[in-house]
Amino acid sequence: MSDDVVIEPADLHEYRLRARAWLQENMTLLRRRDDGTYEDPDGSDPRPERVAHARELQRTLFEGGFAGITYPAEYGGQGLSLDHERVFLEESAGYDMPTQVFAVSLNILGPTLLAFGNHQQKAEHVPRMLAGEELWLQFLSEPSGGSDLAGLLTRATRDGDTYILNGQKIWSTGAQHSDFAMCPARTRWDVPKHKGISVFIIDLSWPGIEIRPIRQINGGAEFCEEFLTDVVVPAANLVGEENEGWRVARGLLQIEHEWVGRSGGGQRTHAGVDDLVALARRRGLEDDPGVRRKIAAMYAAQMVHAQASVRVSNAIAAGRMDHGYGGALKLSSANLAQRRSELGLELAGSDGVAWHEGDTSASSWSHQYLSSRSSSIAGGTNEVQRNNVGERALGLPREPTFDRDVPFNELLRG
Questions:
Q1: 256 is annotated as an active-site residue
Q2: Could you say which of 74, 256, 286, 357 is catalytic?
Q3: Which of 136, 222, 275, 333 could, after both became Cys, cross-link 35 (CB 3.0–4.6 A)?
Q4: Does domain 264-393 correspond to CATH entry 2.170.190.11?
Q5: Residue ranges of domains in the chain
Q6: What pLDDT, in 10s, does the model give residues 279-296?
Q7: Can you tell me the distance from the alpha carbon of 87 to that of 369, in angstroms, rounded to the nearest whole number?
Q8: What's the CATH class of domain 10-101?
Q9: What number of other Cβ atoms are within 10 A of residue 114's Cβ?
Q10: Please, are residues 371 and 340 in contact by the beta-carbon 8 Å criterion?
Q11: CA distances from 411 to 140, 153, 193, 333 (A)
């Protein structure tokens, strides 16, 4: 938690003190480990009971006036700035919070619905998201598509006042615990691939939806694949206009990139270096000048990223920077997460390869390393981010492509 010596505007400092007092009265402190980190039960692959607990915590935040800090008050939010959100996150560090369980729902899907949904959709769902009653995620990737989101094959066929969805999605974080998904599907096949996509809100309890968790290299199973078989979706659940869903999907990804870049998206991107210092001491390396330089460089890189994130995020929110700059933050965040995990594994030595059962201090470094491998893929690969930054932020020519103007049903697939 932050110290009172922080120099900031009076209204922001007053908000910090109010948040600090409320947290002390209403939330539970986590146990602090010897390495300076907190024993956070809100980890990957959460159990159903943990998700239920997170819903209760989110309800407490909502009732206390600390949910949806940057959301419009009209839809249950607080209508405050990103700086207020940053201050609250600083003060809530070390408390048992629903942050990771609701990360995608509140940092990606909620803002996307606010940006592209109609009033009825926002009024029905956004307050319930903030209150912990609805968990959301996105159904974007498909087994055949890779990074080519616009090449999706999931089909949506209009049938009166409904659409019938058939297809398969994959790499959907937390789908087994979620209530709703935002799902792009193809509604026209005789136009170029970007022009025949529509986006739908789907209730994951509906018939025809099968969700299968996927076991990952780090031992978790928060990623899932989904099979949609004749899923009936009301036409009222269409987000935006029919066949104009690429605008919604692109907007969702821009929101995701900026958020992941700003926050790390769950990775330990700018989490300080107390745990690295504790690890060096545990390994007897605290006086090694090379080790000291590496930890100091890691600290400097984290602070530079954190300050750049504040500046860029505020500029994007104010309309002074293109959303493409969010790709730069996401790229920096991914590289930093991997660099940090590699340093931890290097310092851990043999402890990063084998450890005694129950030794979480040793096993965490191996787990962090394995988890960090996905940071340069999930939410848009590093290669995609470089394209986004080059084209949208720097104004460089678009990467050549042969299929942009070809009707989708004339393309070779598979």
A1: yes
A2: 256
A3: 275
A4: no
A5: 10-101, 137-244, 264-393
A6: 999 899 999 999 999 999
A7: 29
A8: mainly alpha
A9: 19
A10: no
A11: 20, 12, 9, 35
